[in-house]
Amino acid sequence: SCLGAWSHQYSRIIERFSSIITAQFFGHSHWDEFSVLFNSSTRQPISMAYITPSLTPHDGLNPAYRVYYTDSSRDNSTHLVLDHATYSLDLEMVNTLPSNTTLSYTLEYTARDSLGMQDLSPESWGGFVQRLVREEEAWDMFYRRYSRGGPHAHKKCKKTCKEDILCRLVTFDREDTMECGRIKKEMKMIEMEQTEQWTVWDIL
User: Fold this and answer.
1) With contact defined as beta carbons under 8 Å apart, do 36 and 127 qualify?
2) What's the predicted TM-score (pTM) here?
3) Residue range 16-32, pLDDT digits in tens
4) Dihedral (C-alpha) 149, 65, 7, 158: value to the nearest 10 degrees?
């Protein structure tokens, strides 16, 4: 949600020092999401912004927190993010329990195992976004985790909603909408392919 000019200058700094900046960590948005920064010239993924879900049940969300695991405890550590684990609380369920019950957050998912990623490099996250564009099952699971399975997860997220969320994942610089444009173009092609398939079935 950073203003365009500020996000542009910040992106320039991250791009310039991407060889030594291993990751960035943010909150504020309340959602469980992330943002991939692409090189402005080569369009290769070069940096990751991890946006941690909130403890506040804002706008139909379940509270959550995240633990990051980094390569930081050995000599010559890379300080790369190796994995992360997200823990959430089912508010609807706990509100049925006695008031003196101790709240217990449960593991919702881990990035590598649950998302099927070999590592948490910017390239891998860029590939994961492509899966969200193409694979309906991956998208449905992502959208549920987006709100940690809270009431918001039951709201329908149709084409425009899906485009908006996917564009957030690839628009690190508010003034650079190239990757967003590519996603919208690909989604339109997928829609056309599906329409052609249905037309063939109608003919048959």
Assistant:
1) no
2) 0.88
3) 999 999 999 998 888 99
4) 0
